[in-house]
Amino acid sequence: MKIAYFDCPSGISGDMMLGALVDCGVDLAAIQAGVDSLGFTQINFSATEVKRKGFRGQKVSIDHPKEQAHRHLHHIVDKIEASTVLTPAQKDLATRIFTCVGVAEARVHGSTLRKVHFHEVGAVDSIADIVGSAIGLSLLGVDRIVCSPIPVGTGFIEIEHGRVSVPAPAVAEILKGIPISPSAVPFELTTPTGAAIVATVADEFGPLPAMKIRSIGLGAGDRDLKEQPNLLRLIVGEVDEHLLSDQVWVLETNLDDISGEVIGHTTTKLLEAGALDVYTTAIQMKKNRPGTLVTVLCSPELIAKSEKILFKETGTLGIRRWPASRHKLERRAHNIITPWGEIQGKLAVLSDGSLSFSPEFESCKKIAAEKNVPLKDVYDLALRTWGEASPS
After folding, report:
1. What is the pTM of this model?
2. Domain ranges of the chain
3. Alpha-helical segments (H) within the chain
4. Which CATH superfamily is domain 328-389 in?
C-alpha cells in the first residue's frame, strides 16, 4: 500500500501543495496541460527552488492576467466538466474540493450552495491551485493520505468583507472536526484553498504512520517566516499490503485515592461504551503513594463519551489524550468444528500472506463449562484442530 503523509508545521496552502507534489516528482507540465484545458487564458506555472529558514523547498508560482471575477460554484464545475484533458478521477476530486469550499462559504454567509459566490477561491490562481493539486494528487497515485494536525496561525487578515481574525471564517468552517495544532506565528498559515484540499483528501489526521519512505517533497510558502521554515513536507512511502492502518486516541489518567472496585466498574463501563481497550498499570505517584494508571484506547468519536465516564466514575481532575497511528492485521471471523463442538475465532492475515487463528475466549469458556474440562484444554484443542485443517 502506498501512503502519502502531509507534515504541515507551517500550515498548508494551494501553492505549498503544488510545490510539494512537484518536488516529489509530479510532472509540472502535466499540471499545466490540465489547467490549460479549463479555457482560461495565459495561466503559466513555474517552479523554482528556494530557501526557507535555511532549508530548500520548491516554490510553484502562477502567473496570470489580473481580473475582478466573482464566480459561482457551477461556473467552475462547468469548466472542469468541459475539459477534454482531465481524467474522471481528477474532475471528481477537483469538484469535491470546490464543493467543500462552497459549503463552508454558504454556511458563513447564510446563503445556499447554488447562490454563494467565491471571492479569493474563485480567482484564477486559486482555481489553478485546486485543479492543479487534484491533478498532482491523482498522478502521485497513493492509496491512503494521512495529515498532521494543522496550525492556522494567529492575528488578523484583510479579506473582501474586511478585517477578520485568523483562522478566517471559511477556514474555521472547513476545519471543523479536524485537529488543529497551536501556533503563535502572526500570519495566516492555512488558507481556504489549503484547508479544503486537505479536508477533502485526507483519510485521517495524526502522527506519521509506520512506512518505508520512498520520496520526500517540500513545498514552500510565499513568506520566509522568522519563527520557522515555511514549508509543507510531503512524505510518500509504502507499507505491507496485509497491514491495515487507522487512528485511535489514547486517554490516560492517574488515580491514587480510589478503590479497586471502582476502577473495575469504570473499566467495564468504558468497554460497554465502545472503547477498543482499557487497561491499568501500577505506578508510584507523588509522596511515594502507590497508584493506578488507567489507559483507554478509543476511536475519535468516543473521546467525549469516554472522558465523561472517567470524570464521573473516578473523580479524576485531569485526563491526558493524544492520537496514535495503529497498524493491524487484516482479520475476519472464522469458526472451527471440534470433537467438543463449534468454536468461534478470528483469522488474521500475516505479512507473508499466511493465516493465523485465534480462538475467542467466550466461545472456549462456554465449551469448557459444558464439557467440564479445563479452559486451556479447549484452547489447545481449537488450535490443534485449526492446524490439522489449515493447508499451511
Report:
1. 0.67
2. 2-239, 244-318, 328-389
3. 14-23, 28-36, 73-82, 88-109, 124-140, 169-174, 192-201, 260-272, 303-314, 361-371, 375-389
4. mk0293 like domain (3.10.20.300)
